[in-house]
Hints:
Strands 1, 2, 3, 4, 5, 7, 9, 10, 11, 12 and 13 form an eleven-stranded mixed sheet that branches. The chain has a two-stranded parallel sheet with strand order 6-8. The chain contains 17 helices and 13 strands. The protein is globular and about 65 Å long. It is α/β, with parallel strands linked by helices. The chain folds into two domains: about 280 residues, no CATH class; about 140 residues, no CATH class. The relative contact order is 0.10. Helix 2 packs antiparallel against helix 7. Helix content is about 40%, strand content about 15%. The longest helix is centred in the middle third of the chain and has 22 residues. The structure holds zinc ion. Zinc ion (ZN) binds next to helix 10.
Amino acid sequence: MRNKIVISKPYIQECESEIFGDAVRLCANITMLDPNTHIEKTKECYFEFDENYKKYLCPERSDAFVMGLLSSAMELDMDIEFEAPISERLYYQLTTYYIPMVAKYNSSYPMNNIRLFGSYDDRQIKNEKAVATGCSGGVDTFYTIAKHLSKDIPESNKITHIVYSSSGTSDFNKERVKNEYKKNITSILNIAKDCNLEAICCFNNLFEFYKIPYRAFNMFYSTTFGSVAYALQKLIHIYYVSSGDPISNFSLNLNKTNGHDSSVFDVFTTQCMNSENLTFYSAGMEYSRIEKEKYIADFIPAQKNLKVCAEIAFMDNNNVKYNNCSICSKCLRTMVQFYSFNKLNNFKDVFDVEEFYKHKAKYVGKMIGLNKKSYVKDMKKIAKANNVKISFGSYIYAYLWYRPIKFLRHIFRNSILARKLYYKLNLDYKLDGYRGPAYEAYQENFKNKK
Ligand SMILES: [Zn+2]
């Protein structure tokens, strides 16, 4: 028989929080085999907010917890059992379409065809009709915000709230996740202020119920992000999931997408996430990343607050002057894309643009050498249309240096010996200029294997 994740009836708890001061939590006790220690235990899972959100929490339904733990359950091949009902539409869509279809096309990930055990309820829950989107401060979210504040959008679809949650972490060190989360709150509040929106901050501990190094958490994350909206379903009735991919990349099988994550099928996922109370949209699927960058290039809140870097928090030699480290692959990709249509200077407050121009040939080469083909192709096309020249030197860096490095990293990615040597010789510092989160994931993995 398959193992189970058992979710108790949700409950509300007031507490004193390091992050919010007077806080409130939507909690449930989760009983399962811990995915990392393999010991069965019962542990509290929670979504924590400022106390003002108490009246919007929804303990009547298990929706938030089922959604939050779904990718973990599918990865670990565990059924989910819940004491309080889930929304009927959600139950129907998850069990008929989402779970069997995602499992069928991603069995090698592995994602498994699990079952949900519990009752469901089709009654509507009274709701304040807020329109929200998750906000990481990245390109996709700024596009969603700019678009849904524009005059082309009907009033009832205009964004009223941005949601900042800890659901996006790829870290497993609780203290560090908390510190990093706390550190970013100010910038999220600044974005909300600059866009004239309300910010909802949610710290949750979903990551503690996932297997390190978080493949399911980071590859199949839309349901996890959506869980926060379900925790607040007495407030939110429309939620935009900012899609990282255009609809042209659609595929249910991630093995066929050259390293893209589940955002390639967000249009399907968001349909399956809808309920009697909540409607989800895959916002931004109509545009490629570079088209979104063009859309936000003159949006002042983005120029002041854009943050694409996921590495800076882990760097011991980070460049704290800017929101973005300006040397990792994601930073470079974004900088080169803005450069390709002459808008990089608009973002000089958030990127080290001066340093970029000093090493332009190398940085452009690194972007071409290390990034996904679709990003490189779009960038080259737009550079050509804008008469931005890519130097011969950049191509030398791209094809004679960074491509071979990418190839070797791929070949040796699962070899513990190669990784040991790689870190021993400090090749990450030598090649990239920093030591990122992969190092600690490797250490953790190594420890577990021992
Ligand atoms: Zn970076």
